[in-house]
Amino acid sequence: MKKSYDTSSYLSYNCVTCLRLTRWIINSYFLCLMKILVVVLVKPTLTPLTLLAVLISAPDAPTDDRDVHKELVKKAGELVQIVDKDWRGEYLEDENSYAVYMSNHDVLLTVSRAKFVDFFEHCDEVLKVRCIYMCFNKEKVFKEKFGIPFALRSIGFKMLNPDDCPPSIDKNSYVVMRYRLYI
């Protein structure tokens, strides 16, 4: 007696296997292509990958390095405003640093800690600033052991001697704390 085989199930199994193999080959090719793009485009320019994606995908994105830097500084200012609406930020070009001016340094309730971390990471990883200065208005009562100054001291900010204050920050109007990212 002859055995009969169902060829339709055999063919469907082979088609599914073939489709899976084709999908795997296409995915592998795409990943390899992306690695080549990263190595060729990102490594020589030392441009962060997120900026590279913006520059490649958006035709109206700034292409000059200075324009890109201005956009990054603008983004840092927006992040400062998100941390607290009464804060304002300023990039100190001569120092390659960023200063944050705050009017209310006693109230921690309005400050978003998560957004402060976003701002801090932006300054560190994207802007690559040397220092972050937190400037407190001298007209307000300054309590180093309470509020925002105390919180900043706990993460590594140090009180700055007025003589060491950068020239672009008015040392007569502000008490300054500094955090060094790069020496």
From TrEMBL:
<protein>
    <submittedName>
        <fullName>Ornithine decarboxylase antizyme</fullName>
    </submittedName>
</protein>
<keyword id="KW-1133">Transmembrane helix</keyword>
<dbReference type="Pfam" id="PF02100">
    <property type="entry name" value="ODC_AZ"/>
</dbReference>
<dbReference type="InterPro" id="IPR038581">
    <property type="entry name" value="ODC_AZ_sf"/>
</dbReference>
<keyword id="KW-0472">Membrane</keyword>
<dbReference type="InterPro" id="IPR016181">
    <property type="entry name" value="Acyl_CoA_acyltransferase"/>
</dbReference>
<dbReference type="InterPro" id="IPR002993">
    <property type="entry name" value="ODC_AZ"/>
</dbReference>
<feature type="transmembrane region" description="Helical">
    <location>
        <begin position="21"/>
        <end position="42"/>
    </location>
</feature>
<keyword id="KW-0812">Transmembrane</keyword>
<comment type="similarity">
    <text>Belongs to the ODC antizyme family.</text>
</comment>
<dbReference type="GO" id="GO:0008073">
    <property type="term" value="F:ornithine decarboxylase inhibitor activity"/>
</dbReference>
<dbReference type="GO" id="GO:0075523">
    <property type="term" value="P:viral translational frameshifting"/>
</dbReference>
<comment type="subunit">
    <text>Interacts with ODC1 and thereby sterically blocks ODC homodimerization.</text>
</comment>
